[in-house]
Amino acid sequence: MKNLLALVMVSLVAFPVFALTVSFSDNGNHTVNLNYDATGDDELPRAFALNIQVSGGAMITSVTGFKIDGESTATSPGYGIFMGGIVIDGNGIVQDYSTPLDSSGSPGTVDQVLPSNHIILGMSSLYWPVDSEVNAPGASGTLCTLGIDCNGAAGDISIIATQEDIYRGGIVLEDSNSAEDVNFQTLVYSCAPATVFSDGFESNFDKWDDFGTTLWDRTTAQKKSGSYSAHCSVGQMSLYSDYIDTSECYSITVSFWYMDHGIDDNDNVYLEFLDNNGYYNETIFEIGNTSPEDTWHQYETTIYNSGSDTQYFHPTFNIRFKGSYIDAGEDLWIDDVSVVVRY
After folding, report:
1. Are 143 and 66 in contact (CB under 8 A)?
2. Residue 245 DSSP label
3. Coil, helix or strand for 219?
4. Which residues, 6+ apart, have CB-to-CB distance to 184 below 8 Å?
5. With contact defined as beta carbons under 8 Å apart, do 179 and 46 qualify?
6. pLDDT tens, residue by residue, 140-168
7. Which of 70, 125, 172, 296 pairs as cysteine with 81 (C-beta 3.0–4.6 A)?
């Protein structure tokens, strides 16, 4: 019995019960929710002052989803602006509700101008009457939503929250005491490259020219891998991929294998990208001047969402293999096409 009691005491010391949890949840659209759960606490939080940081070069791009006017009501409960940020004129009229994002230059701030990898948020519950819970925030919920830009980070990054208790008091409960034993849960957020388009032409042309409408043919005569490749000869025009939404991407990598027979510079055979004005750019890559012919070659290019290449980051991006001027007796084979993006 003594050993059992001792084991129970050790367990209580080793595994504390957290009254308040602060966590993140991934929404899957380059945003995460900042959440709280105080169901195990006797008192609700009255105010939050939090450091929010992201690792790996990623950036926080936006803070949304908070209560704009700050007031919690029975029909719309929640946390809004930290009271110290609200501007009220001499007549008691609110002129500016501000935002949870603390102002640059205030004590303890690092870089409050978005995008940033480290911000300080201040949020509080404002409701009336204060001696009634009818308009109080719920015991758990979402404080706000953060926009996340991987900004070229590869693999996993961490999104971390901690109390900012040096200048702002951290998390304060409704009884005016500071919250203790807060469970801050780090979110591991994936910034790994994503393959958004891939085709080896093994089945059909469903990923091309609006669900398979194309003059190109699939052939077993030449292939880099598998059993088929895509083939173009005289009069078979161009091959267009279906649309790919690249509007929120950091980079685009296009890769494919190709082999040509008899094609030269004058045939104007190109890989082209559709820009945000609906035009194709012939300068991406000219296919017909590679030596030796009748041999498989791989081409790969990566573009970034900056400078002149921003024209290719839009909801209806696609790629085109232009074969309109291929002559009789000339052939082009394409295989193993992929489009990989990073967010």
Report:
1. yes
2. -
3. strand
4. 21, 22, 23, 160, 161, 162
5. no
6. 999 999 999 998 888 899 999 999 988 88
7. 70
How far is Cα 235 from Cα 220, in angstroms, rounded to an integer?
A: 20
**Cβ neighbours of residue 303 closer than 8 Å, sequence gap 6 or more:** 251, 252, 273, 309, 312
Side chain identity at 240, as an amino acid letter? Answer: Y
Contact predicate 309/302, CB 8 Å: no
Token code pair at residue 232: 């173009």
Tell me 209's DSSP state. Answer: H
Residue type, 1: M
pLDDT by residue (tens digit) across 28-49?
878 999 999 999 788 889 899 9
pTM, rounded to two decimals: 0.69
**Under DSSP, is residue 34 helix (H, G, I), strand (E, B) or coil?**
strand
Q: Which of 85-99, 101-115, 117-131 has the lowest mean pLDDT?
A: 85-99
Instruction: Please state, in angstroms and rounded to a whole number, the distance separating the CA atoms of residues 287 and 332.
Output: 9
Query: Which one, of 70, 158, 167, lies nearest residue 120 by Cα?
Result: 167
Q: Is residue 318 within 8 Å of 254, Cβ to Cβ?
A: no
How far is the CA of 19 from the CAs of 41, 59, 190, 201, 279, in angstroms?
Answer: 5, 30, 29, 56, 58
When mean pLDDT is compared across 35-44, 198-207, 269-278, 306-315, the lowest value belongs to: 35-44
Q: Which two tokens stand for residue 40?
A: 């195990």
Buried b (16+ CB within 10 A) or exposed e, 294-318: eeeeeeeeebebeeebebbbbeebb
- The 10 Å Cβ neighbour count of residue 199 is 21
- pLDDT one-digit tens code per residue, 179-188: 888 999 999 9
Torsion (CA) 63, 82, 104, 304 in degrees, nearest 10: -10
Q: Is the pLDDT of residue 19 over 90?
A: no
Within 10 A of 65 (CB to CB), how many other CB atoms are there? Answer: 16
DSSP 259-281: EEES--GGG--EEEEE-TTS-EE
Strand, helix or coil at 151?
A: coil
Q: How many helices (H) and strands (E) does the chain have?
A: 2, 23
Question: How many residues are present in the chain?
Answer: 343
**In 10 A of CB 46, how many CB atoms?**
21
